[in-house]
Amino acid sequence: MTNQELKIKANDIRKGIVTAVHSAASGHPGGSLSAADIFTYLYYEEMNVDPKDPKNSNRDRFVLSKGHVAPGLYSTLAHKGYFPVEDLTSLRHVGSYLQGHPDMKHIPGVDMSSGSLGQGLSAAVGMALAGKIDDADYRVYALLGDGEIQEGQIWEAAMFAGFRKLDNLVVIVDNNNLQIDGAIDEVCSPYPIDEKFKAFNFHVINIDGHDFDQIRAAFEEAKKTSGQPTAIIARTTKGKGVSFMENQAGWHGKAPNDDEYKIAMEDLEKEGAALCQK
Fold first, then answer.
1. Is the pTM of this model over 0.70?
2. What is the Cα–Cα distance from 172 to 234, expressed in whole angstroms?
């Protein structure tokens, strides 16, 4: 896909995020919106996956370590064809398979259940190690939150991945600089994030997480990296695409009401129309 096509798709995924969270009257829109461009590139350009064969043993694996941004993953999976887009409005409803956090037993396309912060990277590292042992061609991708990396288990997993030279593993840190309690550098600073991953023998790439040229170049560089796992530190904007949510920690885990939903969708419709005219 061209960058323009990816931007249009990412905008559609953002609409799905806002619609799902509004319908649920709960959820996490801020981090879902900040990661939408990463989700889009992974599923439409980077990963070897097929909605018609979601359990293919040769598929690339994805682990959403920051599982609370499930609306972003669900919207991406729906638009990719794993399940109907209309089902997004069932998010968090009683009896719905679209739970508040990813569930690998019930949701097509989900490779690992997640939600408890800090644990997803360990699962991804295990998948990558299994791939090495089996001499398999698949690659493993894990999306982390920048607040999540305050968890000690993240660095245990990183130490193991670096030591084992798991060059089939790519870690993406959604560095939107905000967590539930405020700015990450005021709550418990993980900076410098890049230098920390370098210390654990990762190849590190810093990018603008909303620039598809930079996103594309980073994943291509990761594929060419041998003997080291890769960490892509993606600088992003919390709530990206919705005017009143951008850079607001309060929208970490809050659903828009009817009036706010209308404004949010108007923002995204306007952006979509502008992209289609370019």
1. yes
2. 7
